[in-house]
Design goal:
alpha/beta; Alkaline Phosphatase, subunit A; 4-stranded antiparallel beta sheet; 20% strand
């Protein structure tokens, strides 16, 4: 069975009707018409990924993405501490998509060197990639809002509880360091987005998992997310970046995370969302249904996480022969 996790699919009924009214989506309408649709309570992408991987939520994102780089995190607590840009919009601070920063390795290294003393009492700062930084914690840390869930939304202040006090102080000091840093001054002069804060999230240590008895629910995990690829390494299954399209592979129970719809859905970028939906239809659903009809795929399962609600659709080869079930539009996934 192929399991697809596709965040960003669920909108209101009217929004989905407007967005897809002129898009030919024969594979999607077949899946929704002949598959078995189940409504689910609101779920985040990370929670669905944890469930599908038989891991406990919340996921220790920092430890997992370090593992993805073949650097075992050991018996230590880690925390993601990613560079971000907080942008004023409609009297709120909005968390920009971190991918828009496009920091160079040299810029990230210079910023990290300047910021390391600020967080020295909390842990050791390391740069995994220009836009992904980790903190090896000196002690435990409170829970923070996941950056993927906060992106394109208003940034909320940290709670006033005592465990957050050193983090509030460190982040405030970091913002002052960043404001005056030459890297940001050069970027601002060039019209590039600046790094004006750091975002802590995804704390914890790597869970133990033994797949020698084949306990993993899937035998492959395909994703562009380093946390997901870290899960693949933890589960000792095939892990790779998301292919451009589905092809029948040696994996019998692959899990794929197609997250290209998530950010345009949050930011309301209808053009990009429609383009990505058409790409998903042509590259994944059409060949998956063909493989199902040809017996090269046992079943297809699509999970759509979302804040207003989530949904799951399952389709077997036997379901494809139920010709009396009419195609159903994507609006069937709507929340209201």
């Amino acid at each position: 069975m192929l399991t697809l996790i596709v965040p960003g699919l669920i909108w209101t009924r009217q929004a989905l009707a407007d967005l897809t009214c002129d898009l030919p989506l024969p594979a999607f309408t077949t899946l929704l018409g002949r598959g078995r649709l189940r409504r689910l309570p609101p779920r985040s992408t990370a929670d669905v990924l944890a469930d599908a991987s038989t891991l406990s939520a919340p996921l220790p994102a920092a430890a997992l993405r370090r593992l993805e780089l073949h650097e075992h995190p050991g018996e230590t607590d880690w925390l993601c501490l990613d560079p971000v840009r907080l942008n004023f919009h409609d009297r709120s601070l909005i968390v920009d998509d971190p991918q828009r920063l496009r920091l160079t390795a040299e810029e990230a290294a210079a910023l990290a060197v300047a910021l390391a003393p600020t967080f020295a009492a909390l842990g050791h700062l390391e740069v995994l990639s220009p836009e992904r930084w980790n903190l090896r914690l000196a002690a435990g840390a409170p829970e923070f809002r996941d950056l993927p869930d906060a992106t394109s939304r208003a940034a909320l202040p940290l709670p006033l509880d005592i465990p957050y006090a050193p983090w509030r102080h460190a982040l405030n000091e970091a913002q002052m360091v960043l404001h005056a840093h030459p890297v940001n001054q050069v970027r601002a002069a060039a019209g590039l987005p600046v790094v004006n804060s750091l975002w802590p999230w995804g704390g914890g240590r790597l869970p133990a998992f033994d797949n020698r008895a084949g306990a993993a629910a899937h035998d492959a995990l395909w994703s562009n997310d380093p946390v997901a690829r870290g899960i693949a390494r933890l589960l000792q299954i095939e892990g790779a970046t998301l292919p451009a399209a589905f092809t029948s592979a040696a994996a019998k129970r692959p899990l794929a995370l197609f997250d290209a719809l998530e950010q345009p859905a949050r930011s309301g970028d209808a053009i990009v969302w429609r383009d990505e939906l058409a790409r998903f239809e042509a590259g994944w659903l059409v060949p998956a249904l063909e493989a199902l009809r040809g017996g090269r795929l046992g079943a297809l399962r699509l999970i759509a996480p979302g804040d207003p609600g989530a949904a799951e659709v399952q389709l077997s080869r036997h379901d494809l022969w139920k010709f009396w079930r009419k195609p159903r539009a994507l609006t069937e996934l709507a929340t209201a």
